[in-house]
Write a structure and sequence with these properties.
Order of helices and strands: EHEEEHEHEEEE
Structural class: alpha+beta
Distance between the termini: 21 Å
Number of helices: 3
Number of strands: 9
């Protein structure tokens, strides 16, 4: 098994999630297929990840139990790690797009990092690993 294909992220609404991930984070919409009865198969991926790069399956909550998990899928911990090859560029672009960073950028031995929240409150690291490798 050479790769992790998708990670499911439970969302309130397909369109608002697609807008955030494509506009604010710069992801690309890889697939948006109608599955009937209002359900869709929606996949976004970081630009440049290619067809086989890990993507997010944006899954609309179907019931109260799923809705209660929106924004809290990792119990308040950073659960997602977005690598960049230019931290300053992407931090500035994301800030300008309205992404809420929870801290100022830090420069750690492992790289440059700042925690941000997605539109639902899930926590992410924007991270440029030391040496510039993304």
């Amino acid at each position: 098994m050479p790769a992790l294909a998708l990670v499911t992220l439970v969302v309130r609404d397909y369109d608002e999630a697609v807008d955030f991930y494509t506009r604010a984070l710069g992801f690309e919409l890889a697939e948006d297929t109608d599955r009937g009865d209002g359900a869709r198969w929606v996949v976004v991926r970081p630009r440049g990840a290619g067809a086989h790069g890990t993507g997010l399956l944006l899954a609309r909550a179907k019931d109260e139990a799923q809705a209660s998990a929106v924004g809290a899928q990792t119990g308040g911990r950073v659960g997602f790690f977005l690598h960049t090859d230019d931290f300053a560029r992407d931090h500035a672009r994301m800030t300008a797009a309205g992404v809420r960073f929870l801290e100022e950028p830090r420069h750690e031995p492992y790289g440059s990092v700042a925690v941000f929240e997605d539109l639902y409150g899930n926590r992410w690291d924007l991270l440029q690993p030391s040496g510039g490798a993304a």
